Amino acid sequence: MKRRELIFQRIAIIVISFTAGFVVVFLTSSTPIESIRSFLTVPFSNRYFFGNLLTLMIPFIFTGLAASISFQTNEFNLGIEGQCYFSAVMGTWVALNIGGLHPILAIPIIVIVSALTGGFFAFISAFLKSKYGVNELISSLLIGYSLLHITDYFLEGPMLDTQAGLITTKTIDQNLLFSKILSPSNLNTGIFWGIVFLIIFYLILRKSVFGLKMNIYGQNTKFSEYIGINGSSVIHKTFFLSGAMAGMAGIIEILGVHGKMIRGFSFGYGWTGIAVALIAKNNPLWIIPSAFLFAFLESAASASSIFSDMTPEISKIIQAMIFFLVTVSFIKSTGKKKLETK
Amino acid sequence: MEVLFHETISSSTIILFAALGGLFTSIAGKINIGLEGLMLISAFLTPFFSQMFGSLFLGLTLSIIVCAALGAFTYLLHCRFKANIFVVGLAMNLFAAGLTTFLSSTLLNSKGTVYFTLPAKIRPFDLPLLSNIPIVGILFSHQNVFDYLSFVLIIVIYFILEKTFFGLRLKTVGFNHRTAESAGIPVKTYNYSAFILSGVFCALSGAALALPLESFVGNMTNGRGWIALVAVILGKNNPIGVLGAALIFGFSSTLANLLQINTAIPPKLLMTIPFLITLLALIVYSAREKE
Amino acid sequence: MNHAKALQGADFTIEKGTIHGLLGENAAGKSTLMKILCGVHQPDSGGILINGQQVIFHSPVDSLKAGIGMVYQHFRLVEELSVLENILLSVSEKGYKRIRKRTVLKKINALLNYYGFKIDPHDKVHTLSVGEKQLVEIIRILFLNVDVLIMDEPTAVLSEFEKEKLFSVLRQLKEQGKAIVFISHNLNEVIQLCDDITVFRKGRNSFFQEKDYYDKEMILKEMLGGDYQHFFGTEFTGIKQQVLRVNDLNLVSSEGQLLSDINFELCSGHITGIAGFAGNGQLQLFETIFSANINYNGTVFYHDKDIRRCSVFEKREAGIAYIPEDRLYHGSALTIELMYNLTANRLEKPPFSKWKMIDDGYVEQMAKELVNNYDIDTLSVKTPVGLLSGGNIQKAVIARETHTTPDLLLIHEPTRGLDSAAISFTYRILNDLKHTETAILMASSNVEELMEVCDEIYVMFEGRFVHHAKKGAYDKQIINEHLAGFFEKHDERFVRKGSKYEA
User: Fold this and answer.
1) Taking CA atoms, what residue in C is nearest to A222?
2) Rounded CA gap, A43 and A297, in Å?
3) pLDDT band at C225 (very low <50, low <70, confident <90, very high)
C-alpha cells in the first residue's frame, strides 16, 4: 500500500472510532458537550495531565514493540499481557532484594531479569510451535492467563506488604527509581528507555539481515525454508525478543512511577500494545504516534471522568472500535490479490 | 463422587456451548477467536434483559439475537472489508470487556459484582422417570435446564452435521471453498450462518454461566472461550469429539475447585490448572498430529 | 491478472453423439473457451446456442442446468469426503433437508454398474487412484443427466490402462447420444478417439477436419504453427567430474513409498533429465537432495561428501541451487521487494551485509545488474515481486539461482507456462551453465524438451527410475510408454506392480 493510502486509512479509523465513542457519550451523558470538550482538552490543559499522558506512552511503546516484533514473522504473541505482569513481579522481587548494590549496576540487573523472564515465557510458545506444531496464538494466551494468576499469588501471598491498604509489594529503595522529569506529573527517565529500544528495534526490524529474515519467514514460510533460513531459530529469537519487550513494559513503569508493584497496574497493556502495533503496521517508528493515540485515549477518558459524568470505560469502547477497524481496508486496492500468499 | 460428577457436567456445559459455537466456524474453515467476548456479552445481557423484562426466556432470546448479530458482524468485517479474522476476534473480546463494564457502570452504577433479581431461578432438578433408571439415571438427575439442553443439542448438531445437506455443504466450504463454489454452494451464506450460529451458542454459554449465579462480574468468563477454542481443535471438528474435550476441561476446573476447598494450596495457583491442562492437552494433540 | 485477449472470434460447434477433439498448444485458448461454456467466465462478445436457443450462463450452476458438464484437469473433488458425499454435493436440495442416502446410492450404483466401474461409493476420495477419481468426476456429471460432457486434458494424468478404460467409457457415452468435447495436446489420442477435430491457435479456431479426412501432418503443422523452440545446445568438451552421487535412495512417508531404489550420478558440464508426469516423485527427489529433511534411506554424496546433515543454508553455500516447480509460492516471496528476492540467498555475508546489517546500496546496485543481465521487466528493483508478470518472476528466480554459477543446479519444469522468447532464454542459460561446468538435473513432463536439452534421460514412474537412455539412443515411443507406466516385462528391473485394471 502506498504511504498516502496508509495515512488516509489511519485517519479514517481514528475519525470513525472517535465518532462512535462520542455518539455513545451523547446517549449516556447528561452534559454531552461538556464531556466531549473535557475529553478532548483536559489532557493538554496543564503540565500534570500532559506529563501523565506521556508517561502512559512508555509501557505502550514497549508492549507495542513486543507485538510488532511478533507480527513481523506473522505470528501472534497473545501472552504479552501475562508476560508483562509476571516479569514485573520478578523484577520487583529482585529490586527489593538486591541490597546495597550501586544503582548503575542494580537497575540494569532488574530490567534484564524482567526481560529474560518475559522472553523465556514467550520463547516457550515458539518452542512448542517449532517442536510440536502447537498453535502459538493459543499457547501464548493460555500461558499468559496462567501467569496472571501466578503473579496474583505472589502479590497476595509471599510478597504482600501487610501494612498497606492495597494489595501491593513493599516500596523499592528510592535510589533504584528513575528520576522525574516534568513534575508534578509522573513523567520520568523511563521514556528514554522506550526511545532507545524503539530505535534499536527500528534498526533490527527494518535494516538488519535478521529483520529481513523475519519478514521473509512471515510472508512465505516455504520460501524462507528454501532460501536457507532456519525457521525455528527465527521464531525462537523473535518470540524471545517479543517477550523481553513485554517484560520490560511493566518493570519500567514500576521503577518510573509506582515504586512498588500494585495488583492489576498493567491490566490491558498487552492488548493495547497489539492495537498500537497494528496501527504502526510494519514500521516501528510509527509506534510513537500510535502509542500517543492510545495514551491520549486512556488519559482523556480518566481525566474527563473527573470533570464530567462520563465513565472512563468509554476509552475501552473507542479502543475496541479502533481494533475492529484496524485491519479493514477502506480503499479498493489494485493488484492486492496477486500479492496474497497461499 | 456424585457431586464431582454434577459439578463436572455444569462446568463442561458452559465450555461445550461455546465450543459448539466455535465448531461451526471451524467446520466452515474459519477460526472465530471472539468466542470469549461473545460469551461475556451474553453473561451480562441475559440476566440484565431478564431482569428488565421480567422473563428469562425473553432475556435469553434478546441476548441470543445480539450475539448472533455480533457474530455476523465479525464475518462481515472479514469478508466484505477484508479485515484479519484474528484481529476482529481479538477486537470482539476487547469490545466485550469494555462494553460490559461500561454498561454495568452507566446502567447499574456498579463496577464490581452486579447482583440481579431474576424472575425465576435456574436450579438443578431431576427429570421424572428418566432419573430413576439405575446408573444412567445420574445423567438425568440434579442438573439444570442448560445441562439438559446441552444433551439435546449435541444430538441435534450431530444430526445436522452428519445427516443434512446443510452439514455436508458446510464441510465442503471448509475443506475447499473453490470446489464448493463450483458445486454452486453459496459460500458466503454458509460462512455467515456459521458465524451467526457461533454467536447463538456463545449466548447460550454466557447465559449458562451467569444465570445460575444470578450475578455478573467483569471478565467472569475467565478464559473459558479460549479453552472452548482448544476443545474445538482437539475434537477434530466432530461434535462428539468436542464433547469429550469439553468434559476433560470441565473436569479440570472442577478439580481446581475441589482442591481449593479440601487442600491448603493457594487458590490463585489452583486457578492455573484449567489453563495448564488445556495447554498440555493441546501439546499432546499437536505432537501426535505432527507425526 | 492478464488483460491480453485469450480468445478472439472463436467459433465452435458440437453435435449430438460425437466426440469432438480440441487440439492446441498451451495457452491457445482451449481452456478459456471451455470455461465460457461452463459459465466460469463470461464472454465480452458473442454467445452460446443450445439447440438453436441463445443461453446466458452466469455461473457453473447455470450451465449444469442447461446440460453442460465439465471434468477439469484438476479435479473438483473434496478429498476428505466419500464418493457418495461428493456426488451429493451436486444435488440441489434445501439445506435443512435430510440426506436420503439410499435412493441416491441406488442411482449411483446403477450408473457404476452400467459402465462397469469398480468403485465403492463409501470410499473416501483421497484413497482412490487418479484414474478412479476421474471416473468419479464423470459419474458425478452423468448423475445430473448432462448432454454435453467436456473433458479437459483427461489423459494427462492417466496410465495406459486407465486411458483405455476412459476411452471405452467415452465411446459408450457417445453411443448413448451424449456430445463429448475432448481437449488434449496429444495428437495420436485425438485421432484414435475423436470424430471431428478442431485445432486452436492464438485464441481462435484455425482448423477443422472430420474423421474420414484426417491428415496427421497437416494437423500437426496447424498446431505448432512454426513456433517450435529449438535448443541449439552445444557439447561440453572439458573434463567431466562427478558432482553428485545418489545411492539406493528410498523415501517412505505416511502417504506411502515415495521414492524407491534411486541410483544415479551427475557430472559437471552435463545435463541429466528426469522425464515423468507430475506426482511421480520428482518433487520428492529434489526436496531430498536440497531440503533439510533427513528421514530417508540411502546416501546422497555431493563432491564425495555425505550431505544428509547439512542445512539448506550450508548446501547453498556449497554451491547447490534449486529452481522449484512452483516459482510463485515456493521460489519467491511475493510481497518482498525484487532486490531482496534477487539476493536473498547471499544476504548473510559481506558485501551484501556488514555487522548483520544489510547494505542497501550494494544490494540495490547488484539487483540492478541482475535486472539488466537477465532482462527482467520491472519499474524498479524496489517493486514487490508479486506485481511482476509471471514470466518476469520466473526470470527473477532463475537470475537468483544461476548468477552465482552453482556447481549443481536442480531445475523442475524449466519452461512450463513460458512464451517462446522466455523458453529460448531459459535454454540459453542452461547451455551457458553447462559450459561453466555446472551439473544440471532437470525434471520435466515434456519429453521433446528433455530429448533436445539433456545428455541423458531417466524416466520416473511411481517413485522409481524405470528407464534410462543416453543422448543419441533416445526413442520417444519407449520413453512415452515408460512415462505412462506401460512397459513390457522384458526389462526385469523395471517390472511394474499389478494394476487395478488388469483384471
Assistant:
1) C330
2) 9
3) low
DSSP state of C23: E
Q: How many CB atoms lie within 10 A of CB C292?
A: 17
Checking if the pLDDT of B108 tops 50, the result is: yes
Residue of A229, A273, A228 whose CA lies nearest to A250: A273
| Residues pairing with B164 in the sheet | C98
Q: Which residue in C314, C330, C346 has the most chain A C-beta atoms within 10 A of its own C-beta, making it the best mutation to test that interface?
A: C330
Chain A contact present for C387, CB below 8 A: yes
Is it the case that residue C5 has pLDDT exceeding 90?
no
Long-range Cβ contacts of C254-257 (<8 Å, 24+ apart): C257/C463
Kindly state the DSSP code that residue A171 receives in the 8-state scheme.
Answer: P
pLDDT, one tens digit per residue, over C276-285 is 877 788 889 9
Report which of C285, C288, C246 is spatially closest to residue C264, judged by C-alpha positions: C246
What are residue C53's DSSP bridge partners? C50
Give mean pLDDT, residues C146-162: 79
> C211 in helix, strand or coil?
helix
Query: Biggest alpha carbon distance in chain B?
Result: 62
Mutation site, C68, C79, C89, interface B, largest B CB count within 10 A: C89
- Write out the three cell numbers for B27: 467446520
Tell me the β-bridge partners of C441. C272, C410
| pLDDT band with cut points at 50, 70 and 90 for residue C425 | confident
> Which class for A4: exposed (0-12), middle (13-18), buried (19 or more C-beta within 10 A)?
exposed
Q: pLDDT-derived band of residue C390, with 50, 70 and 90 as boundaries? A: confident
Peptide bond into B274 cis (omega under 30): no
Cβ within 8 Å, pair A149-B271:
yes
Q: Which tens digit of pLDDT belongs to each residue from C58-89?
A: 887 788 888 888 888 778 888 889 999 998 88
Query: Could you give the 3-state DSSP secondary structure of residue C259?
Result: strand
- Beta-carbon separation of C91 and B185 below 8 A: no
Q: Which of A246, A258, A260 is nearest to A155 (CA)?
A: A260
Sign of the Cα torsion B233, B236, B242, B244 reads: negative
Distance CA C321, CA C398 (A): 10
User: Can you tell me whether residue C206 is helix, strand or coil?
Assistant: strand
Q: How far apart are CA B239 and CA B243, in angstroms?
A: 6
In chain C, which residue's Cα lies nearest the Cα of A204?
Answer: C357
Angle, vertex CA C161, rays to CA C159 and CA C164, nearest 5: 110
Grid cell in block for residue A272? 493495547
Pick the residue from chain A with its C-alpha nearest to B94.
A320
> For A101, phi and psi rounded to 5 degrees?
-60, 145
- Nearest CB among A132, A317, A327 relative to B83 is that of A327
Question: Which of C283, C312, C410 is the best residue to mutate to test the A interface, defined by the most A CB atoms within 10 Å of its own CB?
Answer: C312
Q: Calculate the alpha carbon distances from C351 to A60, A103, A227, A246, B124 in Å.
A: 37, 42, 18, 35, 75
d(CA C42, CA A268): 52
